[in-house]
Structure formats: C-alpha cells, structure tokens
Amino acid sequence: MHRKLLATWMAAASLLVSGTASAAGGIISGKVDATPPKYLPDTVVYLKSVPGTYPPRTVNMDQKGLKFIPAMIAITQGDTVKFLNHDTVAHNVYSPDGEAYNLGTFKPEQEASYTFKKTGPYSQLCSIHPEMLGYVWVGQNPYSAVVDSKGEYVIKDVPPGTYQLAVWNADKLKAPEKSVTVTAGKTEQENISIKR
Predict the structure, then answer these.
(1) What is the pTM assigned to this prediction?
(2) Residue 184 is part of a domain; what is its CATH number?
(3) Which of 17, 146, 158, 163 has the smallest number of CB atoms closer than 10 Å to its CB?
(4) 49-91 pLDDT, tens per residue?
C-alpha cells in the first residue's frame, strides 16, 4: 500500500517537475559594439511585440551628485518610476517626450512618481540643473536590457518562441533587427553592431 502511494506521489512529482521545466523561459544574451565606441552608453536591447499581460512594477531612479542614477532604466508600459532625491539640493524632474510631464520641484529626501503610459524613450531632465540627463526607455513587454559598460546584455525568462530583437540608442546609432528563436532552458547568443 505504501509502495503504491509512494509510486503515485513520485509520478505526480515527476509530472510537476517536467511541467515546470517546459514552462520555463530561455535567455538571450550577447554584446553590443558601437561605432564610434563613445556612443555605446544609453543603449537598450529589446524584443518587439511579445504577447501577454504584464503586472505593473515600480522601479527607482535616484538623483545624487547632480546625476540620475542609474542614468538609464528599461521598463514596461504601465510601470511606475519613483524618482528619489538623495542629493543635497532640490531637483525638478520633467520630460518633453511621450505624453510629456513635469513632476515639479522636490527637496532632498523627498520623492515623486510617474506612471508611463506610452512606449518609447523618455529623456529625464531637471530644470534647475540643465546638465542633468537620464533616460527611461518604455517597452511593450518586460523583455529588454540596458547594456553594461562593456556593451554586454542579458534578457532573462523569455517565453519560448520566435521574436524580433531590436536595439535603441540615445545617440541614434542603429542596427538591423534580428529574428531570434528562444528555447526553454537554453541561452541564445546574439551580438549586435550599432552605427550611424
């Protein structure tokens, strides 16, 4: 009796594990090279048009040393960015892009938030400190990544399927889109070269 019960439990557990594995996503990773190289920062690699509904998230962008930190974030349409102020001076956050917004002035240790309604890049500016510049890139889906200082990127948990891989660069460097097929549990390597 115990053996039958154990065998049934093990079969169910095996099905559960295999079901979880088959539902798991894949990874797309690679490196972006820029010509000229100085324009590599502020680059996002992303998948276009991935069907699905995505729960809204809240992401932080800080202000410190008269800089936006991080200087660029990638989010999904409907997400909220909480702008923090850990500087010693007041800041104002506004963007002329998308639906355009101005969050007013807020003092050190205060914060302001904005929920992004449209896809695309939004420059982040401060009317008090015109030297400050950051970017919020808003995608249709969460499968995007900002490149690191070496140009490397990783997009995780991508549902299996075939997609168009694209790139956006703040300095208008471009690259052709690529078709990429993602398999559950596998990593696809895709390197990209961007130029004028």
Answers:
(1) 0.85
(2) 2.60.40.420
(3) 17
(4) 999 999 999 999 999 999 999 999 999 999 999 999 999 999 9
